[in-house]
Design goal:
Layout (H helix, E strand, L loop, with lengths): L1 E6 L3 H12 L4 E7 L2 H11 L3 E5 L7 H10 L7 E6 L7 H7 L3 E4 L4 H12 L7 H13 L15 H11 L4 H8 L3 H15 L4 H10 L9
Parallel strand pairs: 1-2, 1-3, 3-4, 4-5
């Protein structure tokens, strides 16, 4: 059973998402919160698999709540998916850096919403190619100071290759095809790289790939 926490200051949004989730046999909404502060407390109390978190909320915004969740070792299995009215707004980069597994636009189709919840529960990032392109564009225009080393020296050659392909927005199946290995082996390479680099999820793995210089965006 996938345990979901809804965190949004708009009751109508929460009730709409809850109505969809309650129809699914494999998903359970364990709690709702109207602000980031309450959401953070409920994450610690209920330990959901997926926390659907609005970006802009009173008391504590979704990005700060996500940052605190990602920093708590006891919450490592909680996957935060940000809810936004704008698919490509200015919060994308900050939220991914904070530890969000991905983004959902609030006018998403119901079937895509349910699929996204299941993807997040598996630990896969909702990192669409458009979001990846935004990250790359950010690094082209505002290159950050590199994290020299950043643990990359601990990666095997195959793990480095897998991380570079993740940074291109490829799925496990496509990474496996590119590396001529099975999807299970590709996932193992990625998981080991995440552990060595202390990346919370694939989204942070992409950020680390660019910050460390493992991957350089075109035009840089």
């Amino acid at each position: 059973m996938i345990r979901v926490l809804l965190v949004d200051d708009q009751p109508l949004i929460r009730s709409g998402f809850r109505a969809l989730l309650d129809l699914e046999d494999d998903i359970e909404v364990v709690a709702e919160a109207a602000d980031g502060q309450e959401g953070l407390a409920l994450v610690r109390e209920r330990l959901p698999d997926v926390a659907l978190m609005d970006v802009q909320m009173p008391l504590m915004d979704g990005i700060e709540a996500t940052r605190r969740i990602a920093a708590d070792p006891a919450l490592v299995d909680v996957h935060v998916v940000m809810l936004t009215n704008y698919g490509m707004d200015e919060y994308v980069f900050d939220a991914l850096c904070a530890g969000a597994a991905g983004f959902l636009v609030k006018d998403i189709l119901p079937e895509d919403f349910l699929h996204a919840v299941r993807v997040a529960a598996r630990g896969d990032a909702l990192l669409a190619p458009a979001i990846t392109r935004r990250l790359i564009d950010r690094y082209v225009t505002q290159p950050p100071p590199g994290r020299t080393g950043s643990g990359l020296q601990e990666l095997t050659a195959r793990e480095r290759e897998a991380v570079a392909l993740v940074a291109q927005g490829l799925s496990n199946d496509k990474i496996a095809a590119r590396m001529v290995i099975s999807p299970a082996t590709a996932k193992t390479h990625i998981n080991r790289a995440m552990a060595k680099l202390h990346a919370h999820d694939r989204a942070q793995l992409v950020i680390l790939a660019y910050e460390s210089g493992l991957v350089a965006p075109r035009g840089r």
